[in-house]
Design brief:
globular; 23% helix; 338 residues; 3 domains; Rossmann fold; alpha/beta; OB fold (Dihydrolipoamide Acetyltransferase, E2P); 6-stranded mixed beta sheet; 8 helices
């Protein structure tokens, strides 16, 4: 029998089966062979074949090929982790003030959406708090790159109807940091959902997790809305370092024009067209900083993944160093990524 994965942990998945019954399913053989080496065997949005064991239980026997996967590198499990699959768009929910607007976090989400080859949309929630000028300027730059920007408030209802119209077709992922109001927004989008919500700590400028795993919710006419846990850090490991620049839309036109050609890392090399574009203001300096940070992570040796050490380069990246020296001349604000 075919089924649709609503949520999954390492050992079990909640599957909506073709007969309309939700079943808690284990995995035949403990793991799905086609996903060997990944942190989670299944993701919300997967389509699977199951063997029914009784009325409310079953076994997942196989996974249908995915159209795409939206995920990150799980540093705890030292493996790639698909958060959602078979999606049509990624919606980044953000806040202008509480918690603070963090564009470098958005840049990582945008890269994940580019890897999944799916549109990236930013929904600025909590606009009743006001939108600082620097936030408005950054959103204008994202819009210039081709990303759709939406404004709203789950608290007042402003913009909720427009967002509901967007997610009423296909499969959408809501992603964002803890405290940006995703759960409140989900409650506004789907009356009667009654998701638990929590206030943001004004002292620490962070929210608390109210969603513990990605969960797919079936909407009218077959639409799917996948809610994800609040994310504080997004590690990226699955992309080859030399391919990273192609995942930044504003850098694509400059690829191949550097003096070193495809060997250019777009860091300190002379004759780098991307760095020249940053100096001229064609590419936003903070987007370039995001690129350099991710690139340094991707350049780390791969052996540490199997060594038991979570990430030996994380302390090094936070303390000194190459990327700070490279972007120093561009007068960037210290905007957090996690």
């Amino acid at each position: 029998m075919t089924g649709f994965v609503l949520s999954s942990t390492n050992n079990t998945a909640t599957v909506l089966c073709f007969d309309g019954i939700q079943r808690l399913c284990g995995f035949k053989g403990k793991r799905i062979k086609s996903l060997s080496g990944q942190y989670n065997s299944l993701a919300a949005g997967d389509r699977v074949e199951i063997q029914v064991m009784d009325g409310e239980r079953g076994l997942v026997t196989s996974l249908e090929p995915r159209k795409n996967a939206f995920g990150r590198y799980n540093e705890k499990g030292r493996a790639e982790q698909a958060i959602a699959s078979n999606i049509d768009r990624v919606i980044c929910v953000s806040s202008p003030l509480l918690p603070p607007f963090r564009p470098r976090f958005m840049d990582r989400l945008a890269v994940m959406a580019e890897i999944a080859q799916t549109p990236f949309i930013i929904f600025l929630n909590k606009i009743e708090l006001g939108i600082p000028d620097e936030v408005a300027m950054r959103l204008e730059d994202y819009e210039r790159l081709g990303y759709r920007i939406m404004y709203g408030s789950a608290k007042t209802g402003h913009g909720v109807d427009d967002l509901r119209a967007l997610v009423s077709q296909g499969s959408s992922v809501l992603a964002g940091q803890s405290g940006v109001g995703k759960s409140t927004l989900m409650n506004a989008l789907i009356p009667g959902l009654d998701r638990k919500t929590q206030d943001v700590s004004e002292k620490y400028q962070r929210g608390k997790h109210t969603t513990t795993m990605a969960q797919a919710i079936m909407m009218a006419e077959g639409a799917v809305l996948i809610d994800t846990p609040g994310i504080r850090r997004l590690a990226l490991r699955s992309t080859e370092p030399q391919d990273l620049a192609s995942l930044f839309p504003e850098m694509r036109d400059f690829l191949g024009g550097c003096s070193l050609g495809s060997r250019c890392s777009h860091g300190e090399e002379e004759g780098c067209h991307i760095r020249e574009a940053v100096e001229e203001g064609t590419i936003h300096a903070d987007r370039y900083e995001s690129y350099l940070r991710i690139r340094q992570e991707l350049d780390l040796p791969q052996e540490w993944k199997r060594s038991g050490v979570r990430d030996p380069g994380r302390k090094e990246r936070s303390s000194g160093e190459n990327w700070k020296r490279r972007v120093k001349r561009f007068d960037m604000s210290d905007l957090e990524e996690d």
